[in-house]
Every structure is written in C-alpha cells, then in structure tokens.
Amino acid sequence: MRRVFIPITLAAFMLAQPSLAKIDTGAKVSDMVVTDANGMTHNLSDYTGKRIILEWTNHGCPYVKKHYSTNNMQNLQKQTTANGDTVWLSVISSAKGKQGYLTGAEATLKNIKRGAEPTDVILDPAGVMGRKFSAKTTPHMYIIDETQTLVYQGAIDDNRSANPKSVQGAKNYVLAALEDLEAGIAVQDATTSPYGCSIKYAR
What we know:
Blueprint: E1 4-7, H1 10-13, E2 33-36, E3 41-43, E4 51-56, H2 62-69, H3 72-81, E5 86-92, H4 104-114, E6 120-123, H5 128-132, E7 137-138, E8 140-144, E9 150-154, H6 173-182, E10 197-198
Parallel strand pairs: 1-6, 4-5, 5-6
Antiparallel strand pairs: 1-2, 2-3, 4-8, 7-10, 8-9
C-alpha cells in the first residue's frame, strides 16, 4: 500500500506566514518535513538525487477530471516514475469542508478506483505546502531536479480547455521538461501559466 503523507506543524515547514515569496524557477527548494499515515517523518531532502514531480489535485475539479477520465494523468505518473529515478507526489491542499478535501483513507481509495499511481499523496488541508509553492490551480505542476532546484512550474499542457478531448494533440509541458533534462539542457518552457480550478485553501 502506498504511503499517504500528512504535513505536520507550520513550524516544521518554517512557514508561519502564508505570504512568503513565491519560489522562483531556478531557485533551490528548502527542505520540508511531512509525516506519513504511520507516523513516520520524512524530509524533502530524502529525495536528493531523484527528480520530484508535484501535482496539485482536486478530484472534484473539471480540469482534474479531464486528465484523469482520459488516463492522461495516470499514464504520465506511470511513465515518469517507471525507472525509479523520479518521485511523483500528488498534493491535496483543499481545506476540510471544501471541494477536493479527502482524508488519507479516502485519498488512497480514490487513487485505487481511478488507477492513479503517484509515489505518494500529500494532504495539506492547512494550505501550508500549497502557499509555500504559491500553487494556484488544480492541476498545478512542478518539477524539482536532483539537486532540489525548481526547474519547472506551471500548467500540465498547453490546452486550457476542460474538455477531455483537448488532451489529444496538446503539448505536455511536464514531459517536455523531462526530455530537456534528459538531454542535458535547460528546460525550454520553464515557467508557464497554470490553468484549472482555484485551490480551495483554508482561510
């Protein structure tokens, strides 16, 4: 069974103020502490040497449904993590009582039902991690490289429609970024404008 990550205190993230500056593309990402469903503590630095893909998600959002109903997101998760050199973390920043909120058990069941295969799910109902990354929409995608440098942030692709048919023929920015990294060159489209539903943060 896949672990479900649950953020702990604000202090653990060193994020007492939600108005902290956005992490710029090309900047180092500071360490973050999260705790899984079994009470085990993990740090972002645990993944040094691997790439990390962050996917902000909300199962009730039509734009998220677009990518899951077509298996676009599931296929991307499987493709990018197949070699074991990339970690995929799905992040739920919906506050309790708002659209997209799930408990750990619910998130696990949701992924089983839709065949999703992220490495782990992070629950962020206080919005601490989301605000740290200035995540705005679902989906909102980020790639952190092996040195914990943020090398991509923005949309999953270049078709901003909620119509599932729009997946076909769209340029997938996540795959394009990974291809650039594999080629040993800088990510060409390193920052794009995300699209989707607004994240239902706690106030």
